[in-house]
Amino acid sequence: MSKGTVVVGMSGGVDSSVAAYLLKKEGYDVIGVTMQIWQDDYNEENRKGEGCCGITAVDDARRVADRIGIPYYVMNFKEEFKKNVIDYFLSEYQCGRTPNPCIACNRYVKWEALLKRSLEIGADYIATGHYARVEQLANGRFAVRNSVTAKKDQTYALYNLTQEQLRRTLMPIGAYTKEQTRQIAKEAGLMVASKPDSQDICFIPDNDYAGFIEEQTKEKSRPGNFVDKDGNILGTHKGITHYTVGQRKGLNLSMGHPVFVTEIRPDTNEVVIGENKDVFTNRLVAGNINYMSIADFEGEYRTFAKIRYNHGGAWCVLHKLSDGRVECIFDEPVRAVTPGQAVVFYDGEYVMGGGTILE
Asked: CA 357, CA 205: separation in Å to the nearest integer?
């Protein structure tokens, strides 16, 4: 008897391929789907790349689906991707913030849009190849739990999912290490078993963020001043889209010692430069909070927080502000708190919630 119908988002990589294979073995009716997200005017060379939704991804995903014997489709999500990921990415950088497009893509494309489309065709669940687990807690709420392998854990990028999305989400890969996943793929005869992981943002494979922003907006980067915290001019920068808080390389400033970006001021088109110690702080304020393992909190809440994907995490106390924002006070100073990035809070192995860093 079938456990239900699940649409698996297949990127053409080993993780989503094994997710589809495992779910079929577990007794689900599996449908493979690759999300077409590239814009029609996007660079043809980039669209053929090895990214999660390029042409190569479609070819690989289709071959995997044939191998494991499941129906496979390509669904068009260009409009959703442009609105919720590309436009957001461009706007944030132009405002002096450093966005996380993968989090936006997860929330609004891979889950919201794909789940809606999947339910419309009669599916019960969606599934992905993320290294994370979804569990229902004793309080009845659903939460993302760390994967069994800390090295590949992807819970940070999933903090923004809603309860309804989590209730209908399966993540079978979270129970395995990367090595085990590749071994499963090899034993199942999946041709992507040794395929390398994609590293860069999928729509900027050459990692040239500023160039991509110029190309998309048709606006040249506007040079401005590097200044110190007192406003003294230190040099000229190439445009604020070239920089992020904590950056040391690529500044081309002859200061006689290492210096770092400590702040970006879009209103004055200034990039503030300081010493390494100036990049540390024990405080941040976050907004657009999404609670996951709990419905909300009042007063103070002690938790463990990550301020970027590869951050090891740090203990802190949260203070609820009157406007719904959260102030986070760390036990020890943390490096390069970056407006636009996410701060994600953990209760043990479970995501408590998270939000966007504002200051």
From this structure: 26
Helices (H), the chain: 14-26, 44-47, 55-68, 78-81, 87-94, 101-105, 114-120, 163-167, 178-187, 209-217
Cα–Cα distances in angstroms (integers) from residue 52 to residues 12, 102, 113, in the given order: 7, 11, 17
Nearest to 212 by CA among 222, 223, 201: 201
Give 112-154 pLDDT, tens digit per residue: 999 999 999 999 999 999 999 999 999 999 999 999 887 788 9
Would you give the DSSP letter of residue 51?
S
Beta strand 300-306 with 342-347 is antiparallel
Hey, what long-range contacts does 182-190 have (CB within 8 A, 24 or more apart)? 182/14, 184/18, 184/21, 184/22, 185/14, 185/17, 185/18, 185/21, 188/18, 188/21, 188/67, 188/68, 189/67, 190/14, 190/17, 190/18, 190/21, 190/64, 190/67, 190/68
Strand partners, 270: 225, 265
Q: Which two tokens stand for residue 266?
A: 């879009």
Q: Which residues are catalytic?
A: 105, 202
Taking Cα atoms as reference points, which of 165, 96, 161, 119 lies closest to residue 341? 96
Q: Is 27 helix (H, G, I), strand (E, B) or coil?
A: coil
Q: Which two tokens stand for residue 164?
A: 């309804």
Which pTM was predicted?
Answer: 0.91
For residue 154 the two structure tokens come to 């992807």
Per-residue DSSP letter, 65: H
Amino acid (one-letter) located at 318: L
Answer for the pair 20, 45: CB distance below 8 angstroms, yes or no: no
**Which conformational region is residue 238 in: left (phi greater than 0), alpha (psi within -120 to 50 degrees), or beta?**
alpha
Helix, strand, coil tally for the chain in percent (to 5): 30, 30, 40
Cα distances (Å, whole numbers) of residue 352 to 20, 246, 250, 292, 341: 28, 27, 37, 5, 17
- Which pLDDT tens digit goes with each residue over 5-38? 999 999 899 999 999 999 999 999 999 999 888 6
Please state, in angstroms and rounded to a whole number, the distance separating the CA atoms of residues 304 and 314: 6
Residues 6+ apart with CB under 8 A from 94: 213, 217, 240, 241, 266
